[in-house]
Specification:
The structure is a single chain. It is built from 23 helices and 8 strands. By secondary structure, the protein is an alpha+beta fold. The strands form 3 sheets. It has a 4-stranded antiparallel β-sheet. A two-stranded antiparallel sheet has the order 1-2. Helix 1 packs across helix 5 and helix 14 runs antiparallel to helix 15. The protein is elongated and about 90 Å long. The N and C termini lie far apart (71 Å).
């Protein structure tokens, strides 16, 4: 619970941010808030005026309150007999938007100076915005019928479970619009190859073709590790006010309700740490906005990992939670140290490595990145090619329906997609698959 000292600093910060950063105005608003004049007012105002304009524009009530608490004069005032006492709250907020950070000034983002503008842009009434942006404490306790997400537990191929949190039809179009008109206009780091329109898994794999050593690392619970506070900070960095950033973060994050957590805990499907990550507001795996937000929130992770790769003389790319470093044989010799560096960077940036999935692949064995062989060129694994070729051959000789052992509803489209994927990796080798696909009698 906030202390009286913190609450007083918050009230003073609101008063200071209610007008332009001029010494006389700052002192007058602090005097009006506290109902008295004090010597530390002028000293604090002069310190704030000396701040760079970019720094002042990006100050929020909370960050300025933290600066006030660290001020020497403010601290001494609480040691005096007559302590600071709030007499009047100035709740007028700054309107408009702050400029985009350097390097992103070319991006065209929607103009939402206040929450009413955001609701009007989304076509949602004030009551609807209130319902969609209720706090995480409500989300955890509310009945499942009142939640904005559907919950589905899927088994991972590598073992363990993954919780899908899919937004309901009334929320998903709003998130899709935020993705198309805002998030997709902000470029992630160049090393991020997943869930971006400019790059794909092929770029992720081709960056490591023909390398002597390929190191693979895995980020544990990638989406749920991104907290709502980081999403809020991201939107604030894009220039939106604190209230608009808070509503945007609430639209894109969720806190898993207790009945779902209790069921998974009783069945032993997730670990205690995973349950705690789901209990806090996080990016839902299943929402359209989650992948883009995760990439943007991992910008510092990519920046530091790219710097580490530069120092090691290696290449670095990331596809969602899959981190790959490749380079010379010295990477194999210093793997324990590199793994420790990568783990430390991940922890400091709010993520965690799954050390059981760390792999060191040399040229003497198959080097695969996201199931793409990269020893000499990006290629389909031989066993996967042979399996697909056998399925197509059986479809030609015995009929396609007999080979659909898993009961896929769109079997023809599934095989066409597999052949198209093989064509992207190795067009010459995939011609044999195309010929078999054309010979299938789908009316048989």
């Amino acid at each position: 619970m906030p202390t009286l000292r913190r609450l007083t600093a918050l009230a003073v910060a609101r008063a200071m941010l209610a007008g332009p950063p001029k010494v006389a105005g700052l002192v007058a608003r602090m005097r009006a808030c506290l109902g008295a004049d004090a010597g530390w007012h002028t000293a604090l105002a002069e310190r704030c005026v000396r701040l760079p304009g970019e720094h002042w524009r990006r100050l929020t009530t909370r960050t300025l309150a933290t600066l006030i608490e660290r001020d020497t004069g403010y601290g001494h005032a609480w040691l005096a007999d007559q302590k600071p006492n709030v007499r009047r709250h100035i709740l007028r907020e700054r309107t408009g938007m702050q400029p985009l950070p350097l390097g992103l000034d070319h991006c065209q983002v929607p103009y939402w100076p206040h929450t009413a503008a955001l609701g009007e842009w989304l076509g949602v009434s004030d009551a609807g915005m209130w319902r969609l942006t209720r706090p995480s404490a409500w989300q955890r306790r509310a009945h499942l019928g009142e939640q904005h997400y559907r919950y589905q537990l899927l088994a991972k191929r590598s073992g363990g479970w993954r919780l899908l949190e899919v937004p309901h039809p009334y929320l998903k179009p709003l998130q899709r619009r935020l993705l198309d008109d805002l998030l997709d206009r902000i470029p992630p780091h160049e090393a991020a190859c997943g869930y971006t329109r400019e790059r794909s898994v092929l770029d992720h794999a081709r960056a490591h073709v023909g390398r002597a050593v390929v190191l693979k690392f895995d980020l544990q619970d990638f989406f749920t590790s991104v907290r709502a506070s980081r999403v809020h900070a991201l939107f604030a960095t894009l220039g939106y006010s604190e209230t608009v950033a808070r509503e945007l973060a609430a639209l894109c994050t969720t806190a898993t309700p207790e009945p779902v957590l209790r069921r998974m805990h009783e069945d032993g499907q997730l670990t205690w740490t995973q349950l705690q990550r789901l209990r806090d507001p996080h990016l839902p795996q299943g929402a359209p906005t989650s992948a883009a937000l995760a990439n943007l929130c991992a910008f510092r992770l990519d920046l530091r990992m790219d710097g580490l790769a530069h120092v090691l003389g290696a290449r670095y790319t990331r596809y969602a939670d899959d981190i790959v470093l490749s380079g010379g044989t010295h990477l194999r010799d210093t793997l324990p140290r590199i793994e420790a560096w990568v783990g430390r960077i991940a922890l400091e940036e709010g993520f965690a490595l799954n050390h059981r999935k760390t792999r060191c692949l040399t040229t003497g064995r198959r080097q695969a990145v996201c199931n793409i062989v990269v020893n000499r060129r990006a290629n389909l694994p031989r066993d996967e090619f042979d399996r697909l070729k056998a399925i197509l051959h059986q479809c030609v000789t015995q009929g396609p329906d007999i080979q659909n052992r898993e009961g896929r509803p769109h079997w023809r489209e599934y095989l066409q997609g597999r052949v198209a994927w093989a064509t992207q990796l190795n067009p010459a080798k995939a011609q044999r698959l195309k010929r078999l696909l054309d010979q299938i009698d789908w009316n048989r």
